[in-house]
Amino acid sequence: MNVGFSWNLVDDIRQMWSLQSMVSAFRAGTIVAVLGGLVGWFMVVRKQSFAGHTLAVVGFPGAAAAVWLGFGAGFGYLGFCLVAALVIAALPTQGQAGYGEESAVVGTTQAFALGAGALFVALYKGFLNGTNALLFGTFLGITSDQVLLLAAVAAVVLIVLAVVGRPLLFASIDRDVARANGVPVRLLGVVFLVLLGATAAAVSQITGSLLVFALLVLPPATAQLITARPARGLVLSVVLALVSVWVALFIAYYSPYPVGFWLTTVAFGLYLLTAGLSLAARRMGRRPVPVRV
Amino acid sequence: MPLVKPTTVRTGPGSETVPAGRDPFGPDSGRVSAVAGPVPADRAAGTATLLEVTDASVVLGGCAVWSAVNASVTEGEFVAILGPNGVGKSTLLKASLGLLPLASGRVRLLGRAPGEANAGVGYLPQRRSFDASLRVRGLDVVRLGVDGDRWGLPVPGRRSRQAAATVDRLVDLVGAGGYAHRPVGQLSGGEQQRLLIAQALARGPRLLMLDEPLDSLDLPNQAAVAGLISRICREEGVAVVMVAHDVNPILGYLDRVIYLGQGGAISGTPDEVITSETLTRLYGTPIEVLTASDGRLVVVGQPEAPAHHSDRHARS
């Protein structure tokens, strides 16, 4: 960076935001933080983290292929992730969350996806630096077109989530009863996987394919340590994701190290801090639990 | 259908198991008979038929689970579905709710086809328990029973306040006030079961369908939850159909039992049905019903799970 960090944070931020690319990075980061915090919360409750990870990894060959063929990486992530979501949804399911038994199949697909990504990278000669960005994230070179695409995806995902959120929560924690109460459990499972695919694709553009959990798992998991109330948990998850992204972008701008590292470090730090505090609170507040039936 | 129900006096949650007499109408040595709760006369008489199963059979994976089953449940009754493991007791509940198709015969639930009247039924499926890591409060689980099937965001307002009030009332009803605000995964089996019963009652059902609600509870909890279910049946006027593999914790509360076999079902009062002769006839193999000195029933020689295994998968 040509201008160094000073301890006057307001000046630092003003200077950082004088660059159009940094403004775009903050816009994109804010959008994916909101998406990741909300959709990730449901993903954690539904125990579909492995599906989320697979969807993100499948985005890698998509993005590599898109770059090789001359489309934007964003469309590659999105296209591959959505198709993968539909494929996973089509796999036969038995488990409580509608996922898990076929983990070997999904894992196999994940490995193949990474291999295919390596091929596309090789086909596109001189792409080596880009590989790092696709896998571990970047905040450089995010265009306002990309921000627009992210905003459009986010708008659709958030609207759908607002409509299906409550029955989705019901189906996630109490599948059989939800079904008996008339909730279309199977359909909601498919809808959620598509939302998760779109979210993984969006988040990948900041975090890279391998670090999506920095926004999809860490903030929701931290929020769930703090509160067991669904509404508060969702809000908190978004707040934590936003803090993680903003702080990480700020540090990454003034440091020579990649944004993916800072993002996971901030999110993981928040998680450790919260886990430590809640453990301490439990130790302090431990008293004999009355026997109840 | 008995005109006078066996009534028991409860001393609150955790009251001891009522010694299950072989004959609920026999001398009530340890129990006070007469009316212990507000049981309207017409309800006690039980008029409307809530569930009617006629000549029904279910086929899963190419094998008949059971066939030629006839059963009915009348308003306000407490009925148990009994039978050996794997005979398809849960399947009977699921078929009644329209969650599994019938191969033949007919089911009418609240006077309508299966699946059309589920809003008037509270269903508690068989389960082990919530995952210990599930960070959702007991209150939220009950609330989902009230309006969890509604689309769109829960907007603050009159409807939301009503739903919250319903949740509070239900939590009080099952005596879960002390722990309903805690994450449900951290609660004991008995506590979870009480919250799930509250959830099943959320939409003011006329019929509760409970699938092994006492399963995996310790004995004091079995007695307490059985007492709770009976109290809900009597005081709230909700008929209860309950699948059980052990009749003893609920024997003192039951109006009727439905004993399920592969080739049909026999229903009647417990002392009519749970006898060596009746069960021997139902299963076609010698069965002995013994009464222990404390009044508990022991069924000896009950057939093991039938040769087909489809039901095991169907109930998962």
Describe the structure.
The complex is a heterodimer of chains A (293) and B (316). Chain A is mostly helical. Chain A has a single domain, classed as ABC transporter involved in vitamin B12 uptake, BtuC, CATH 1.10.3470.10. Chain A has helices at 9-17, 20-45, 49-69, 73-90, 103-123, 128-136, 144-173, 175-180, 185-207, 213-216, 218-226, 230-254, 259-284. In chain A, helix 2 packs parallel to helix 7, helix 3 packs across helix 9 (185-207) and helix 7 (144-173) runs antiparallel to helix 9 (185-207). The longest helix of chain A has 30 residues, at 144-173. Chain A is globular. Chain A starts with 8 loop residues before the first helix and ends in a 9-residue tail after the last helix. The longest helix of chain B has 17 residues, at 219-235. Chain B has a 6-stranded mixed beta sheet, sandwiched between helices. Chain B has a 3-stranded antiparallel beta sheet with strand order 2-1-4. Chain B contains 9 helices and 11 strands. In chain B, helix 5 runs parallel beside helix 6 (219-235). In chain B, a hairpin with a 5-residue loop joins strand 10 (288-291) and strand 11. Chain B is globular. The interface between A and B is large, with 31 and 45 residues.
Question: Secondary-structure map with pairings?
Answer:
The complex is a heterodimer of chains A (293) and B (316).
Chain A: H1 9-17, H2 20-45, H3 49-69, H4 73-90, H5 103-123, H6 128-136, H7 144-173, H8 175-180, H9 185-207, H10 213-216, H11 218-226, H12 230-254, H13 259-284
Helix pairs in contact in A: 2-7, 2-9, 2-11, 2-12, 3-4, 3-5, 3-9, 4-9, 6-9, 7-9, 11-12, 11-13, 12-13
Chain B: H1 41-45, E1 49-60, E2 63-74, E3 78-82, H2 89-97, E4 104-109, E5 121-124, H3 138-147, H4 158-173, H5 189-200, E6 207-211, H6 219-235, E7 239-243, E8 256-261, E9 264-268, H7 270-273, H8 276-283, E10 288-291, E11 297-300, H9 310-314
Parallel strand pairs in B: 3-7, 3-8, 5-6, 6-7
Antiparallel strand pairs in B: 1-2, 1-4, 8-9, 10-11
Helix pairs in contact in B: 3-4, 3-5, 4-5, 5-6
Keywords (chain A): Membrane, Transmembrane, Transmembrane helix, Transport
Organism (chain A): Rugosimonospora africana
Pfam families (chain A): ABC-3
